[in-house]
Amino acid sequence: MSLIERLVVQIVIANLGLWVAVKLPISGVEFSGSLQQLFLAGSILGLINFFIKPALKAVTLPIRILTFGLFSLVINMGMVWTIDIMFEELVIKGLGPLFWTTVIIWLFSLLVSFSAKDR
């Protein structure tokens, strides 16, 4: 898969995951903006995941090894929290809703990575 294809896939995953997280009845996750604003938030999340997340994963490698990879969840939650801070239309109240929103986006990423390996 080329670099551009991986970037587009990251953006699509972030958009779908964020949209599903907003649509599911997760207590503490609300979005009051338009669909375009949600698409923009998801696109920025995809860009952050594509450009910044690899650097964070490299820097935190010792911590991720010590925690058997669980620190990756903290990194992912930080990415979603960044989007929550950047967009006032998106409100995620507390760690529980932030955790479940992150898990939903991660599940979409997992499904896409499994389907990409089949190709």
Q: What's the SSE blueprint?
A:
Elements lengths: L2 H21 L5 E3 L3 H17 L1 H7 L1 H6 L4 H16 L3 E3 L2 H24 L1
Antiparallel strand pairs: 1-2
Helix pairs in contact: 1-2, 1-6, 2-5, 5-6
Provide the β-strand percentage band: 5-15%
Assign the structural class, choosing from mainly alpha, mainly beta, alpha/beta, alpha+beta, or little secondary structure.
mainly alpha
Helix content: over 70%
Strand order of the largest sheet: 1-2
Low-confidence segments:
none
Sheet of most strands: 2 strands, antiparallel
Please give the count of helices. Answer: 6
Shape field: globular
Count of strand segments: 2
- Tell me the count of domains: 1
Radius of gyration: 14 Å
Mean pLDDT reading: 93
Helix-strand pattern, N to C?
HEHHHHEH
Distance between the termini: 10 Å
What does this structure look like?
The protein is mainly alpha-helical and 119 residues long. The protein has one domain. The protein has 6 helices and 2 strands; from the N terminus they run αβααααβα. Strands 1-2 form a two-stranded antiparallel ribbon. The mean pLDDT is 93.
Index terms:
single chain, two-stranded antiparallel ribbon, globular, 6 helices, 119 residues, mainly alpha
How do you describe this structure in short?
With 119 residues, the protein is mostly helical. It has 6 helices and 2 strands; from the N terminus they run αβααααβα.
